[in-house]
UniProtKB/TrEMBL annotation:
Pfam families: Lectin_leg-like
Annotated region (Disordered), positions in chain: 253-273, 286-307
Protein name from the UniProt record: L-type lectin-like domain-containing protein
Keywords: Disulfide bond, Lectin, Membrane, Signal, Transmembrane, Transmembrane helix
Signal sequence bounds: 1-23
Record carries keyword Disulfide bond: yes
Organism in which the protein naturally occurs: Chrysodeixis includens
Length: 502
């Protein structure tokens, strides 16, 4: 038992030491002499600073086309100098594009003791290389349906690459990834640190910097020191365009490699360099601005030219689809935000209502305290519905009343304008009076039937409703009419005032 415990303790100590070693800060430094990137990747004479290219490779301001989409093309680009650091990370942004469903042959990144060929046998570079090749093999030579494939092949200068089997017997490690015809440039990050080789791949489905995924990791990899960096590509019977947009090299330094005082030095250096960089940046912007002012037409033409020449129908369609998707995504995000806002407001309203209700109940809620039971709201859904229905009935009644008043006033005007009551008006008034009389009779009868005491009241001396004199009814009707007219005038004035505000 005790030996097991001892072993466990030993293991944990070793593990913690390993973790300590691995979590040591890695100092990174961008190595501009082993990098190239747009804009102004190539200078006016076509040369790429610190690099040399050849074969069918062409460099422009925006990219290096290692091999164009023509049959049997080969090209390569190599760093002029060998590196002066042990550990490094290289980030390559590239595009392999072609009209065919299948393309060929592929592209390779090289870290070798010496510069290779520009028109060699292995994806444009020399065979029997000494060092590392990370190959992006498009074409499936062995017909095993396992291409495009990304693989690392290490050679000591003696082996010949076996194209027939796509190097399947020689590779150190690899992963099956499609890197052809992607909407955004594909990327590979190759890291060689403390004899561990790690390759990450970005599949180009997004332009998000963080979308790298691990392709493979291999340990105990030993590469020659002070090697050169290179890229090459080749086409065969089938042909893709092989474009490299950037190659960025970063040297990696572990803590032990830092010399005493080196940190301070690098901080000073950093400050100085960043100052210089800012100055150059300002100068560059100024020059660009001047150029634009001097040649406004030329700049516009150039921008348009590239768009017109380098976009096929398929690419345009794809771009449109992606733009559409991006827009949908934006709309959805906005919608999501708004729904969140609405929910937040609703929650606020609910809490306010709850507070009001509890205050009405005489139980003030302590701030921050959660009520033990959510009280039901003072107004329920059915109450609300009933309220709305009542309101509607009231509105309808008022509208009817208004119509009636207008009709009455019209008739009154007509009768006043006519100089005397017409036969028709007199008949209508008589009818109305008959109706009023009938209603009064009905009400009296109902009252009589409902309450027997009323029958015994003095009204009983007049058992028939017709005993109400015509003069009395006329007076009542006249008073009613006058009241209605006054109300109609008052209402019209009110409406006129209200209209002024709108
Ligand atoms: Ca192949
Ligand atoms: Ca294959």
């Amino acid at each position: 038992m005790s030996s097991i415990k001892l072993n466990l303790v030993l293991c944990s100590v070793i593990l913690s030491i390993l973790v300590c070693v691995n979590t040591q800060t890695v100092h990174r430094r961008f190595e501009y002499k082993y990098s190239f990137k747009p804009p102004y990747l190539a200078q006016k004479d076509g040369s790429v600073p610190f690099w040399e290219y050849g074969g069918n490779a062409i460099a422009s301001g925006e990219s290096v086309r290692l091999a164009p989409s023509l049959r049997s093309q080969k090209g390569a680009i190599w760093s002029k100098q060998g590196i002066n650091f042990d550990w490094w990370e290289v980030d390559i942004m590239f595009k392999v594009t072609g009209r065919g469903r299948i393309g060929a042959d592929g592209l390779a990144f090289w870290y070798t003791s010496q510069r290779g060929d520009y028109t060699g046998e292995v994806f444009g570079s020399s065979d029997r290389w000494n060092g590392l090749a990370v190959i992006f093999d498009s074409f499936d030579n062995d017909n095993k349906h396992n291409n495009p494939y990304i693989m690392a092949v290490i050679n000591d200068g003696t082996k010949v690459f076996d194209h027939k089997s796509d190097g399947s017997q020689q590779l150190l490690s690899g992963c099956l990834r499609d890197f052809r015809n992607k909407p955004f440039p594909t990327r590979a990050r190759i890291e060689y640190y403390l004899n561990t080789l790690t390759v990450y791949f970005h599949n180009g489905m997004t332009n998000n910097e963080a979308d790298y995924e691990l392709c493979f990791r291999a340990e105990n990899v030993i590469l020659p020191r002070g090697g050169v960096l290179g890229l090459s590509a080749a086409t065969g019977g089938l042909a893709d365009d092989h474009d490299v947009i950037h190659l960025l090299t970063t040297s990696l330094h572990s803590q032990q490699q830092q010399q005493p005082g080196g940190q301070q030095m690098s901080v000073d250096e950093q400050q100085k360099l960043s100052q210089e960089y800012q100055e150059y940046q300002k100068k560059l912007e100024q020059q660009k601005e001047d150029y634009r002012k001097e040649h406004p037409d030329e700049v516009r033409d150039k921008d348009g030219e590239f768009d017109d020449w380098f976009e096929s129908d398929g690419q345009r369609e794809l771009r449109q689809i992606f733009q559409g998707q991006t827009q949908i995504h934006d709309v959805l995000r906005d919608l999501n935000k708004k729904v969140d806002e609405v929910i937040g407001k609703q929650m606020n309203a609910l809490s306010m209502l709850t507070a009001v209700y509890s205050q009405a109940q005489g139980q003030p809620i302590q701030p921050g305290a959660v009520p033990a039971q959510m009280p039901s709201l003072p107004i329920g859904r059915h109450d609300w519905d009933a309220l709305v229905a009542n309101n509607q009935i009231m509105i309808n009644t008022i509208a009817e009343l208004k119509g009636f008043i207008i009709e009455v006033s019209r008739k009154t005007d007509a009768s006043a304008g006519g100089g005397g009551p017409s036969q028709q008006f007199v008949a209508e008034v008589r009818d109305s009076l008959q109706q009023v009389k009938a209603t009064v009779t009905g009400v009296a009868q109902r009252l009589a039937a409902g309450s027997p005491q009323v029958v015994n009241a003095p009204i009983s001396s007049c058992p028939d409703a017709s005993c109400v004199s015509v003069t009395g009814v006329l007076i009542v009707a006249a008073v009613q009419l006058a009241l209605m007219l006054v109300y109609a005038m008052y209402k019209e004035r009110k409406e006129a005032q209200a209209k002024k505000f709108f």
